[in-house]
Description:
- The protein has 202 residues and is mainly α.
- The chain has helices spanning 12-29, 61-72, 115-129, 134-147, 152-179, 184-191, 194-201; strands at residues 5-6, 55-56, 59-60, 82-85, 94-97, 100-104, 111-114.
- The strands form 3 sheets. The chain has a 3-stranded antiparallel sheet with strand order 1-5-6, covered by helices on one side. The chain has a two-stranded antiparallel sheet with strand order 2-3. A two-stranded antiparallel sheet has the order 4-7.
- Helix 2 (61-72) runs antiparallel to helix 5, helix 3 (115-129) runs antiparallel to helix 4 (134-147) and helix 3 packs across helix 5 (152-179).
- The longest helix has 28 residues, at 152-179.
Amino acid sequence: FIDGETSGNYSKTLLNEFSKTIAKINLHLLKLPLENKIVWKKDHQFKLLDTIYIDFKGFKILNENKKILSELKNINKSKLRKSAIHGDYHPVNLIVRDKKVVSVIDWGDSHEDYLCQEISSLILDLILENSSNFNKIKQVTKEYQKILPFNQEERIAMYYFIKVRFLGGINWHIKMSKLHPDKKKKLEKEAVETKHTKEVLR
């Protein structure tokens, strides 16, 4: 049992603490040997989404995906470090006490992947919280890289990984709305965040 509580938002103080905490965790995870046991679809960021939803309310999911993949061809994958990652960092997965992160929970999505995928997921979460969260995004990358710097290729890849994960999120919401008709309106409303879609994919 860990004494503390989850946080529902990203305050400046918590964001600094969070960024440094995940960088420290990733620094240690990076030292572990890869075993290729818990791996999502290999190089999934560089492949077409596994989806049957070509068009969703005028949004061309696969067309957007193909545009991103054409740009990702210029990435030198050999310069992207691989590691075990948490895979789902956001406030509700932090246990906080006295404005300090004392534990990170919910490791159900942990797997081996590109290191920069980890921070890409966190940045997307900030964008979805508020599409004008640019100062918070700068804060995260600055604090994280004080402990674990990215190389130039990883910084470029991160930009595209954010877009790929965003499309995957839309696809997931649509798929769940088909599987759970009772929650269809709620799930489709979340999927149709057109303002965020334009901001992330522009």
